[in-house]
Amino acid sequence: MHSEKAQKSEGSGAPHRFPGLFPAKEEPLSPFYTMLQSAPPDYLTQRDEPVDFPPAFPVYYFFYGSLTTPAQVKRILDLPEEPPLREAEVFGYAIAKWGDYPALINGKQGQVVTGSAYLVRSEEEAQKLSYYETNAYEVADCWIHFKDHKEPNEIGGKVFMYAGDAQALLEQRFDRKLWNRQMGGKLG
């Protein structure tokens, strides 16, 4: 149980989850601050507006495993030379192990996964990457934050996420969801 003192921020009458954000007690609260008092804890860190993720190519893909190596991307995409990759990160995700392989799953708010981003130029490149990743992963929209101080510094893009049951993966137990996906309904 939280005490009333823990619920309030230093005499402001505001919830403790936004410390320092509210004016001193003697100042009247604006309608904005009043609204924040009843907002969910993650209100300020979640994007409410829809993000327009690129529907076509070129589009940045965020990589977090073996694809962070330019030589590996060159080999998979059959490129004439190693491609430029940008240092990047995504927020709100975590890495779990699927055997020897890293698998991106939804994480806790504020968790960060670092990796690289590559500008996928065509549907053909996207298909080659999907084939490499297998059907254990699915393409999902993400928000990519670049760490290289070049423009753009953030952009909507794509990422390969684990397609199975993340909880089963974390608990290292049989993943019926992934098994069904890989078997394609062949066994029942």
TrEMBL record:
Cite the residue spans of the region called Disordered: 1-25
For this UniProt record, the keywords arranged alphabetically read as follows: Transferase
Q: Where is the Gamma-glutamylcyclotransferase AIG2-like domain?
A: 61-179
Q: What Pfam families does the database record attribute to this sequence?
A: GGACT
**One GO MF term attached to the UniProt entry:** transferase activity
**Positions of transmembrane segments:** none
Coiled-coil blocks:
none
InterPro entries the UniProt entry points to: AIG2-like, AIG2-like_dom, GGCT-like, GGCT-like_sf
Stated family: Belongs to the gamma-glutamylcyclotransferase family.
This protein is called what?
A: Putative gamma-glutamylcyclotransferase
Write down the species. Aspergillus carbonarius (strain ITEM 5010)
